[in-house]
Amino acid sequence: MKKYSIKMWIDRFLIILMILLIVSALVSSLYMFQQTRVMERTVMQTYELNGELYTCKFYKGEMQECWLVDDPDVGGGKAP
After folding, report:
1. Nearest CA-CA partner of 44 in 32, 53, 35, 52
2. Is 71 exposed, middle or buried (CB count within 10 Å of its CB: 0-12, 13-18, 19+)?
3. Which stretches of the chain are DSSP H helices?
4. pLDDT at 41
5. Comparing C-alpha atoms, which of 36, 77, 39, 32 is closest to residue 59?
6. Distant-in-sequence, close-in-space partners of 74: CB < 8 Å, separation ≥ 6
């Protein structure tokens, strides 16, 4: 019959812990890579309409939102 020691259980625990750390690092790096790819597909463009500047955000070719550049609530303009 094989004798189990505490050292053997600690070694096994440490090996499992190292494997879990490596896997979690790989998963988190893949997530960050995917988020970077999403950011690269987002395009910001500025347009002039009736003498006012607007900045619009496009994602995958569709406009998501636009805002007035000189709007003090957004932070782009100066408050009177």
Report:
1. 53
2. middle
3. 6-40
4. 65
5. 39
6. 67, 68
pLDDT along the chain (80 residues), means of 10: 83 96 93 73 74 77 70 50
Spell out the domain ranges in the chain: 1-40, 42-80
Q: Kindly report the pTM of this predicted structure.
A: 0.44
Residues 6 or more apart whose CB falls under 8 angstroms from that of 64 comprise 56, 57, 58
Distances (CA, A) of 31 to 8, 34, 46: 35, 5, 30
CB atoms within 10 A of CB 12: 11
